[in-house]
Design brief:
Rossmann fold; globular; 11-stranded mixed beta sheet; alpha/beta; about 20% strand
Amino acid sequence: MKTLFLPLLLSLGLLASSSAWSQPPATLLGGACSGGPDAPLTEAASGRTFVLDYPCDLKPGEDVTVILNLHGAGSNERYQRAYFPAWELKEKYRLVIATPHSPVRRWSQDDDAYLQAITDAVINAVGQEHVKAFWLVGHSQGGLTSRRLVCTPFFADKVDGFVSLSGGRLGGAAERSPGAGRPVQADAPPPRTPGAPATASISIPSEPGCDFSHIYETGEHEIVSLPTTSTRAEQLHCAARVRQEDVIDTEAGRTYDSGSQNPGTREWGLLPRPGTAQVYEYPGCANGRVVADIVRLDKGHTEGLEPMITERIIGLMTR
């Protein structure tokens, strides 16, 4: 009898041991892993919503990279999620991405408490000890806002890096192209003041001084030229700039500014197209920091990032 039942008991024991190893996927803040903009979460204190994306196979206690992904002025969370589609790589690179929304479509200090509350909620849900890295990512005015926030008391000890998507370069600004700015449309009403510029001037915050990685991305037609040096790289004791292999995308990006194509301009951005991006990195930075510049050739301000260059940026953020 013992001989007959021993294989069965051993088999049951192995099954019990195996089941103890497998854990159900985690659920963060009660939201679906890929709910998207149609299933937003609500930040309790403000009552405002945000989109949360995380790996659908996320295990409790798993280390992840957390991203706060800010849209630009006149934009929203739907556009930003398509402009920088990091959510498509959340399983591969173990990303938790919060994409908030400003109801006035522009960020100000009035939004800081809301952004802080989202950050706290996501980090607490993941577990502080399981945040491998925390990055601010912002397009245009969202980049300027990230720049303003990065060294504030709340974020300074949390942020590991800042990705500026056409939102200004740290370490030496790239001169803007003379044609940069939203184009005046053929059916637009006349300006209130004759001769007034189509867009207001942009106020650039001062250079932040705390310790973090910095990745700058821009369209070729937005700038006159890319600086060849970086004071940010010098502060982090990085080596001289090295041009990496170009990133060639055969697929177009996911979005563009459809409301500014009458006519569109190459500086502001045309229709989505495949493209090539030049990547420059300052290697050997202190404390494992990353400093890199990326120029998307023949692209403007509003054309969404193509899949391969999106992945290259995520790779720099998570290595």
